[in-house]
Amino acid sequence: MEDYLLLEMPAFKPHYKKWKKYGYKNVTEKNNLKDALEESTGGFCMYCYARIRVDKKLYADLEHAIEKSNSDKLIECIPNIGLACSVCNQSFKRIGEKKRKIEKNTIRQFEKTSRCSAECRKQCTVACKALRELQKEYSAGSGAEILLQPMGIRGSDSKEMLALQYNVMKMEFEPAENRHTYSDSELRFIKAHIKRFHLNDPEFRSRQLFDFVRNVIDHNGKMPEYEYNNLTVMLFCEKLKGKPPEEILKICKNIFMIAFLKM
């Protein structure tokens, strides 16, 4: 399949500045953390890829990948905190949260070996070994098939990072099998993540790329310049950059004819 028809969703890698403090409770540190996370995503939700800043207002929550209710150490654990829209954070992610509660023995081991503490939050911007081990235990639990952000999840079989791709012709999210070799269990894990966040459900799936394609056709191959409301549109535009309008128009017409029947 043509490269521009499969968009691999990027990993979000926040850049934390050494001279800044980041945290969850302190207002200034919380704003610093939000800024760093928003910059890493380009202004999109880490789970559904919808734009989270509208008219200069941020519509997103700091989201604890491994729920902070498991341990007080996780509250200020910067590598464990991502940025998500309120729907993904407060609705979809919370489903089954009680069932994902980590066993006390595992938490005690994490708290014993973790170097994180409220006193050294500035240094705790990279996931330590203890947090990674806790993540493995968490992800193996019931209903925990979630591509946690911003840490990411590495498959236990393939040893590759589990990732999504957006199939432009289908207008759907799917496991990024095009660039990775995943086992059957890893594929099920990714598909469960897609289902959890309703990425392909008719009620919630994004129409932004479909509308963009139609807009390009209406303008004879000229790509409109506006703030895209979904990361998939931005990634698609990057794939088309440098192509002449005639080719862009042909591509979009082909996509539109097939995608129209699926929307």
Radius of gyration (CA) equals 20 Å
Which structural class do the helices and strands define? alpha+beta
Number of strand elements:
7
Low-confidence runs = none
- Helix proportion range: 25-40%
Largest sheet: 3 strands, antiparallel
Shape: globular
Number of domains: 2
SSE pattern, N- to C-terminal: EHEEEEHHHEEHHHH
Oligomer state equals: single chain
Tell me the β content. Answer: 5-15%
The number of helical segments is 8
Characterization of the model:
Helix content is 35%, strand content 9%. It is of the alpha+beta class. It has two domains: 11-157, no CATH class; 208-259, no CATH class. Strand 2 and strand 3 form a beta hairpin. Helix 3 (104-113) packs antiparallel against helix 4 and helix 6 crosses helix 8. The longest helix has 15 residues, at 27-41. It is globular. The mean pLDDT is 92.
Relevant terms:
single chain; 8 helices; alpha+beta; 2 domains; 263 residues; three-stranded antiparallel beta sheet; 9% strand
Brief summary of the model shown:
The protein has 263 residues and is an alpha+beta fold. Helix content is 35%, strand content 9%. The chain contains eight helices and seven strands; from the N terminus they run βαββββαααββαααα.
Topology:
Elements: E1 6-8, H1 27-41, E2 53-54, E3 57-58, E4 61-64, E5 81-84, H2 86-92, H3 104-113, H4 129-139, E6 164-167, E7 172-175, H5 184-196, H6 208-218, H7 231-240, H8 245-259
Antiparallel strand pairs: 1-6, 2-3, 4-5, 6-7
Helix pairs in contact: 3-4, 6-8
